[in-house]
Target: histidine kinase
Amino acid sequence: MTEDKLLKRQLKKAGISSFDSVDEEAFDKLLQYIEQSYRDNSETRRIMEHSLDIASQEMREVVDDLEKAHREVEKKDKLMFQQSRFAQMGEMISMIAHQWRQPLNMISVTTASIQFDVMLDKIENEKLIASMESIASYSQHLSDTIDDFRNFFRPAKEMQRTSYCEEVKSVLNIIEDSIAAKNIEIIKELNCKSEFNVYSNELKHVIINLIKNSEDVLVENNIENPYIKIRTYKQDKTRILEISDNGGGISPENIEKIFDPYFSTKIKKSGTGLGLYMSKIIIEEHCGGQLEVANNSDGAVFKVILSH
Model:
């Protein structure tokens, strides 16, 4: 149909009303029109192909730029994550030093007691055995602390099957004594024991960041009867970990920026300002969940939300 219309149009231009009235001059005109039409179509196709080549090249350059920008963002995030990790490592070493103080003191007291009994020649087998068992128990506690610390900073290559309860327990094994030494009460309401697959060390990193954030606020604001509440529960098809405190909350002008990199509300700028930013990256990009913050009547409430 389209070819018929095109032919009729060319015939009309050449002054031919029908094939019965074709003379040599009209036929030559028809051939000229057809040839010109072919050249016009060829030129149009050439221009279109050239335009497509240019567009394709520009598209490739845009894709290359996007891939380069993506690599730069990944490189920056990795560097920021390492920076946050090293800062947290320093804090945890300080916590472990506090964690070790009591068992080391008890080992020292127990060995001094044994030494004193030996000097007085009053050593009793039952007391000696009990003392040695105590020393072994304290030493095991020291060893467990080192294992927790080493496992925390070991790169996770595969997801592990775990639960909020296990992760919270592992974190508190390292930092609970340090927090308790500041007279901060830790309230645990761990009601979600269901397991899920996650990068365990990264989730621990987030939990420590959130707990330490609460601790810093409570200490800086000199809060009376300070507490940190850790809750886990199920809601619809999600598992939720809540970490809250009675530190007074986050001001309206800061709450929208609280997850920005290098943003900090701390009076003493001893941190990197990366803890909450990296926590959000971990939960949302690595765990497929959400990290939210809001204020309640006592203070800030951070929620880690993971889907079933």
User: Anything to note?
Assistant: The chain has a mean pLDDT of 80. Strands lie at 160-162, 185-190, 196-198, 227-235, 238-245, 290-295, 300-307. The chain has two domains: 2-72, 160-308.
